[in-house]
Amino acid sequence: MAKVFAMLVRNELLGFMRSRSSLFWALVFPVFLLTVMLFAFGHSSSLGQVDVAFAGAPDTTYAQACRREIETKLSQSGTVQPRFVAAGATASSAERLTVVLAATDGQPTRVRYDFNGSLGVRAASRIVEMALARCTAEQRGIHTGELVRFENSLPAQRPFDYGTFFATGILIMSFMAIGLNSTAASIATLRERNTFKLYVCFPVSRMVFLGALIAARMVMMALSALVLLLVARFGFGIALPLWSAAALRAVPVVLLGAAMILSFGVLLASRAQSLAAAELACNVTYYPLLFFSDLTIPMNGAPSWLKDGLKLIPTNQFAVTLRGVLIDGAQYSHFAIPLAGMALSTLVFLLIASRAFRWHQV
Amino acid sequence: MHQTFLASVRAALDPMRDFRWPQTSGSRRALNPWDANCALSAESIDVQSDAFRFAAQRVAFRRGAVTAIVGPNGAGKSTLLETLLGFRRGVGERLRILDVPADRFMRGSAMLRRLGAQLQRVEYPDHAQVAEIVALHRALYRRQEPHIAAALGLDELRGRPYRVLSKGQRQRIDLYIALAHQPELIVLDEPFTGLDKHYAGVVTGLLRGRPDGASVAMICHSGEELAAVDDIVWVHGGGVRYQGAKQALKERLVGELRGLMHCDDQAQAVALHERLRMLPSVQRVSTPQPLQVEVFGNASLHADVRDVIADAGIRHIELAPSTDSDLLRACAQGKHHG
Predict the structure, then answer these.
(1) Core-most of A35, A241, B46, B258, by most CB within 10 Å?
(2) Cβ contact, residue pair B87, A193, below 8 Å
């Protein structure tokens, strides 16, 4: 039986490798999505990079002081990532801010940018305005000192990092694509084509065939995770602690999450009469889970009542636990409830699937 | 021939009355479903779904024989076969496969190595390669007869993906999976579907050349398929109409000889039909096509028919021995003939 099982797993994996569609969705699309999301939102919690150019540059004390103040405040700001460029004749872009300094404080400094541009360039313009106000006050002999002190109300919470957020969220998304959609589709297809009916006549338990299908998908998940995390770490420089104790502690969480998603995929396919029915069931569950599980759309701004409800979603529990253990380095005990939720969900899915599973259409 | 006047009257009023279960051929005793000589058996079967109902009592397939399940489309042939294999729960009583309770047989690896199945409308996964399917068979059954691979032309298919094969090529693969390990019981659901004449002959040869004692249960739709058949299970009208030797059923339904006459007009056809029915050598008269009259009967049929057609002025007639194809047509038509 072991030989047959290994052969079946190998055949499933070979089928996966032969399918360009499967390779794309499992290996290429997660990287592509990560790339797009990072381009849209940037790596850290900043609003992205902004090109800042100084035009005119009159050689006065006021202008030089203001320029220094602007450069300092922009560089110290965590809101945008400034890149100081030469004021060339290039056309203005959505990420470019041009400061035309006035020679004296009696004249307005012009700040030129695309009013319909990105949030980053608009935020940078406000930082320039505040820097100019401070500089002008200093030049007039008004020492502002420390007007505002910003204090973190939740110092224990790590700074939000889009890079790690998207990397872990897209990882779970690719698990869902493989464990949910691919698994359910494969099982439904085998049933629709009466292949399971033939397997019943073979001298090996039909659970071996089902087990091989699931085992192959776990390998696909591992491969997808490996590709995504390596690209995230070494391609985009996202601070993922892949070679740390936290990463080792994250492995059981990933395995539990994968098992949970796979068991859900088997459940969805357990009674599907056709591939179309299985796809409908998958779509009805996949997209809501995608949007409400805090995978690629941050839910930290959602109402508290919604956030409390989302904590019950197994994939949300998976995301929270994975980020906590891998990124924050927390212990399992901090996530006892979501871990228990994931384990319970897995057991429930498996129990229902085992009772409801139909090997062939009657 | 009906030996009494009363039997003749009964036969004229209800020709199919003699063929209801239990019925055996000649002197062969009826098979007992608990008999170890049964390859497949059931005490009773009762399947209902929507408007379909299939019920049968004491179904038994003789061990060591090739048994064909025949009948019109939708009669329940596949239902019967699947029920006997235990695919449908709760619809059969005392189902046995090779003298083992069916549910136990279908769960034991050692038992299942004694079974070879080719089922209808079954497809392997799209990504499967023929070589992988063959290798899986070898791992499952630990035995593959090389002459079967050669006979079915497997070498030319080995390096190809399953999804690009034609219907006939897929059928050859499916038959290989069912036959290559030389099982004791071979279950085939329309094994000749999609095969060309060459491979249809090959499969007939493989069935004839099967190991001694091996049993075959197969669903047939063509005369060529019946060439290697010993017994018939005739499914019609929601049940089993006949179980027994093929030859006996053939003699009862279509006799030894057949005649086909082409008439000039409808009046001539009707008149001819009535005259032929009265002949003592005639067992059955039918109208397969407009202006055609077909007749089946015993060894005296052709002589009797020649006399009739001379009077009737029939100019086009075909006389030949009755064939397995005629038997299948009669089984498909059931009561609705003549």
Answers:
(1) B258
(2) no
CB contact under 8 A, B140 and A203: yes
B232 shares contact with chain A (CB less than 8 Å): no
Whole-structure pTM value: 0.77
Sorted by sequence, the CB contacts under 8 Å of residue B23 that are 6+ apart come out as: B242, B243, B244
- Note whether B271 and B307 are within 8 A (CB): no
Within a 13 Å sphere around the CA of B309, how many CA atoms are in the beta-carbon half?
A: 22
| CA–CA dist B269, B290 (Å, integer) | 9
Kind plus residue range of the DSSP H or E element containing A79: none
CB atoms within 10 A of CB A221: 25
**The residue to which tokens 């498996």 are assigned:** A350
- Maximal CA-CA distance, chain A: 94
Q: Say how many C-beta atoms besides its own lie within 10 A of residue A253's C-beta.
A: 21
For chains A and B, count residue pairs whose Cβ atoms are closer than 8 Å.
74
Q: Please, which residues have CB within 8 angstroms of residue A202's CB and are 6 or more apart in sequence?
A: B112, B140
C-alpha dihedral, B192 to B198 to B203 to B207, nearest 10°: 130
Contact by Cβ (8 Å): B31, B245: no
- Which of A4, A18, A190 is nearest residue B140 as measured by Cβ atoms? A4
Q: For the residues A15-44, what does the mean pLDDT come to?
A: 87
Which DSSP letter does residue A43 get? Answer: S
Residues of B in contact with A193 (CB under 8 A): 121-124
Chain B: nearest CA to A3, how far in angstroms?
A: 7
**Cα–Cα dist B58/B66, whole Å:** 18
Q: Which amino acid is at B190?
A: E
Strand, helix or coil at A11? helix
Tell me whether residues A193 and B119 touch, CB distance under 8 A.
no
Helix axes A29-41, A206-230, angle to 10 degrees: 40
Cross-chain residue pair B127–A18, CB shorter than 8 Å: yes
Q: Are B59 and B225 in contact (CB under 8 A)?
A: no
> For position B30, what pLDDT does the model report?
56
Q: Does B139 touch chain A (CB under 8 A)?
A: yes
What pLDDT, on the 0 to 100 scale, is given for residue A243?
A: 86
pLDDT at position A126: 93
How many other CB atoms sit within 10 Å of the CB of residue A270? Answer: 21
Mean pLDDT of chain A: 87
- Name the more confident of A336 and A116: A336
Chain A residues at the B interface, defined by Cβ less than 8 Å, are: 1, 3-4, 7-8, 11-12, 14-16, 18-19, 186, 189-190, 193-195, 197-198, 200-205, 360, 362
CB contact under 8 Å between A19 and B115, yes or no, is no
Extended strands (E) in chain A: 49-55, 81-85, 96-100, 110-113
CA distance B207 to chain A (A): 20
Per-residue pLDDT of A350-362, as tens digits, reads 999 988 888 876 5
> In DSSP terms, which residues pair with B92 in a beta bridge?
B45
* Buried residues in B145-184 as b, exposed as e (16+ CB within 10 A): eeebbebbebeebbeebbeebeeebbbbbbbbbbbbbbbb
Residue segments in chain B with a per-residue pLDDT below the cut of 50: 1-3, 11, 14-29, 336-338
